Amino acid sequence: MFYLPYVFNSRKIQVERPESACRLFPFFLFLIRQHLQCPLLFVLQSGMPQTVCSGTMFTTSSGFSPHLACAEPGEEEEEGAPQEGPGPAACLADGPPITSASLETLIQNLVPTADYYPEKAYVFTFLLSARLFIPPSELLSRVCEQCIKQQQLDQSPLDTVKVRKFGPKILQLLTEWTETFPSDFRDEKMVGHLKDIIHRIAPCDEAYWKTLNQMLQKLSQRLALLSQGEESIVKVSLNASSISDKLVAFKTKPPPIQKDILSICNDPYMLAQQLTHVELEHLRHIGPEEFVQAFVQKDPLDGTQQPSFSEQKKKTTNLEAYVRWFNRLCYLVATEICMPAKKKQRATMIEFFIDVARECFNIGNFNSLMAIISGMNMTPVSRLKKTWSKTKTAKFFILEHQMDPTGNFYNYRTALRGAAHRSQTANSNRERIVIPFFSLLIKDIYFLNEGCANRLPNGHVNFEKFMELARQVGEFMTWKQVECPFEEDRAILHYLHTAPIFSEDGLYLASYESESPENQVEKDRWKALRSNVLAKT
Predict the structure, then answer these.
(1) Which intervals hold domain Ras-GEF (predicted)?
(2) Cα 347-395-415 angle, rounded to 5 deg
């Protein structure tokens, strides 16, 4: 039997075959195949989910700026920066916005001229969504071709005055592209197109050579960070281990099989801080394109016989790793609670994790909060009635209420809206932290993708859909930019990543060893589990 936990009160959806669950959420196919016992939360509720909206996206030194919103009146532009002219891609917030257009028209809107630069909202939205229809390398090639043709960059001599008006704008576009979607430039073709267009305009201004070198240097640094992040993910995955189920039978004998979390950290606030470190580290490596590539399908208007870009380049490594971290934390919490032999120790562990969850809520770390609650609601934990009778559960019920799925997680979305508002007006990184419940964010994007077609019946790109997608992804990109203000504790972080955890069978066996089965079904399962353990020994 395969279970999709439904978050609270041990309510579960039973699915006889994992493949049927995969039809509901194809993105999580990789996870279902590898972790059939995984407690990933699939919340099946009717209606189109709505992610909380913040009025603007963000403006940082890394090139992001408000998306789907115009600059405020009277806001000064940086001297020498390209002016955003009233071209065909004029502000998406002040109508009439682009709701649909042919792919060719959208590409033309992306191309800057001497007198026009597209809104940054448009740039982000189109670069994010265009990969569903055309590979980034081909898109950049077509942009460069149009620039060469419009600016006559293949002529000699060049019109220096004209090129100097155009140069800052194409450099701005390339800068935004390399800073927002650096992984696109792992393709050597992308770097080749970038160098070619700058080489064509560089004879008109020596500063363009300097800009090219700076752009390539920063791009190289970003790609190195991406590679390091992916390597660390692989390393952590190799170091993570599981407790052999056969050890459960000996857990009552000293010395203890393993250290518990309390021997490493007995301060709930400190553990919540370290969990926030882990969350922000994962978020830092997730690129915006991964949200699009998670659900991509072949473009029906792509008549080529070659595999589509989406089929060739469907890379969601960092996003998948973050989902695995959520599942690991769920199982770690359940393991820590089921492992102690004595009821008092289990009750102490439950109260400790309740306090950790409360601190996560106060920090704005909703993902760790939900993972802890989910771990405590797993059946092997929730069935420990004698243990729960010894705990003070009032705070736990309050936290459950905050994360109640009723009304499409209305309470959580209200709390998230408050945290987002606090972040916008914050004076310190401590107050800027917003870590959303990630599985719900993925669910929102999934339903947006499934509920709206990429193309309209006339073949036009449904740009209105991608504006909403850009808003949701853009908001996430705002939150991931926050630097963690808490000091690292390497011992705690190492434990969180490498502490052994039980499999689902191991959790049930540990639970039955702690508190005897109450009915025939549980007795039969306990007997089967113990038989399997003896067979392995």
Answers:
(1) 267-517
(2) 135
10-residue mean pLDDT profile of the chain (537 residues): values are 33 34 36 36 34 35 32 40 41 62 96 94 96 94 96 91 94 96 95 96 93 95 88 69 53 54 96 97 92 72 47 71 94 95 94 96 96 96 95 90 91 94 91 95 90 93 95 93 94 93 91 92 89 71
Backbone angles phi, psi at 501, to 5 degrees: -130, 150
Contact 363, 350 (CB under 8 A): no
Which residues, 6+ apart, have CB-to-CB distance to 456 below 8 Å? 100, 462
Is the peptide bond prior to 96 cis by the omega test (within 30 degrees of 0)? Answer: yes
- Structure token pair of residue 255: 């010395």
Q: Residue 132 has what DSSP assignment?
A: G
- 18: tokens are 């994992």
Q: Residue 524: in which H helix or E strand, if any?
A: helix 520-536
CB 67 within 8 A of CB 124: yes
Distance, in Å, from the CA atom of 59 to the CA atom of 97, rounded to the nearest integer, reads: 22
State the Cα–Cα distance between residues 127 and 63, nearest whole angstrom: 14
Q: What does the alpha-carbon distance between residue 271 and residue 261 come to, in Å, rounded to a whole number?
A: 9
**pLDDT value at residue 449:** 87
CATH class name, domain 263-297+315-502: mainly alpha
Phi, psi (5° rounding) for residue 355?
Answer: -65, -35
Q: Say how far apart CA 376 and CA 352 lie, in whole Å.
A: 12
- Residue whose token pair is 């606030």: 269
The predicted model scores a pTM of 0.78
Q: What is the spatial distance between Cα 343 and Cα 390, in angstroms, rounded to a whole number? A: 8
| Predicted pLDDT at 84 | 43
The CATH architecture assigned to 100-220 reads Up-down Bundle (1.20)
CB 36 within 8 A of CB 18: yes
Q: So where are the chain's domains?
A: 100-220, 263-297+315-502
CA distance 167 to 112: 9
CA-nearest of 251, 339, 245, 335 to 533 is: 245
Q: Which of 178, 104, 175 is nearest to 460 (CA)?
A: 104
Measured CA to CA, the distance from residue 380 to residue 191 in angstroms comes to: 53
Classify the C-alpha dihedral 194-195-201-207 as positive or negative: positive
Helix (H) or strand (E) holding 13: strand 12-15
Neighbouring C-beta atoms of residue 162, cutoff 10 Å: 16
